[in-house]
Amino acid sequence: MVKGNDSALSGAGSGSRDVILDAARSLVTSQGYDGMAISDLCAQSGLPASSIYYHFGNKLGVLAALLERTFQELHAQFPNPSSFRGLEPLERFETWLTTACASLDRRPDYLRLLLAISVGPHKDTEVVRNTVRRIRDYAHASWVDALTPVFAPHGGEENEAFVQQLAVLGRAMTDGLAVANSFDGMSYSAHVAPFVSLVRGLADQGGRAVGVTSDVGGA
């Protein structure tokens, strides 16, 4: 009987925590972290301040938990380029980018949230800086994984450096599209074809990606 009550309380606590984080996501996206007060969280979530302090300690704790949950959601939703390894390099890249942009179109609040948090003064707090860095490092590694079979299938310092530069450009493009999506209603998917054309042109210009499969060495 006691165990059952404990389980119910635990489930209720977990539910309250998610409700608060959902409210925080909405508030940070619409008015920024600095504009979000505990009273706003209470009004948005329908829960008392005591519940917010119980779960997160303070407003920064809410932000840290929201970032961590966002990272986990992004990790679960975004495709891994290696899952398309059976395709030719350029087709592999296009398929990965198409799938990734479709994921962003389904949940555009992900990048809006990340950008809103990344430009405020709180970006320099350790918990925010570390979590944002993990998210961005994960995104950068995905771009590198997607581009390497096209531009550096056999390695080479110059080719690998070019992949790193292009990966930064790819991340910057998706960051910028978060703003375009928010203000102009442009979808992420609408920009897949132009970026793929850019990558294809660069590959043709450099004589790369010709006859190279994404699974070099048959592994």
What does this entry look like structurally?
By secondary structure, the chain is mainly α. The protein contains nine helices and no strands. It has helices spanning 2-31, 38-45, 49-56, 59-77, 89-106, 109-118, 126-151, 157-184, 192-206. Helix 3 packs across helix 4 (59-77).
Distance between the termini: 55 Å
- What percentage of amino acids are in beta strands? under 5%
- Helix and strand run: HHHHHHHHH
Instruction: Write down the overall geometry.
Output: elongated
Mean pLDDT: 82
For the largest beta-sheet, the strand count, sense and barrel status come to: none
Task: Give the number of helices.
Answer: 9
Radius of gyration based on Cα positions: 21 Å
Give the low-confidence spans. 1-12, 209-219
Classify the secondary structure makeup into a structural class. mainly alpha
Percentage of helical residues?
over 70%
- According to DSSP, the number of beta strands is 0
Essential attributes:
74% helix, mainly alpha, 9 helices, 219 residues, disordered C terminus, disordered N terminus, single chain, elongated
Summary of the model, kept short:
The protein has 9 helices and no strands.
What secondary-structure arrangement, pairings included, does this model have?
Blueprint lengths: L1 H30 L6 H8 L3 H8 L2 H19 L11 H18 L2 H10 L7 H26 L5 H28 L7 H15 L13
Helix pairs in contact: 1-2, 1-4, 1-6, 3-4, 4-7, 5-7, 5-9, 7-8
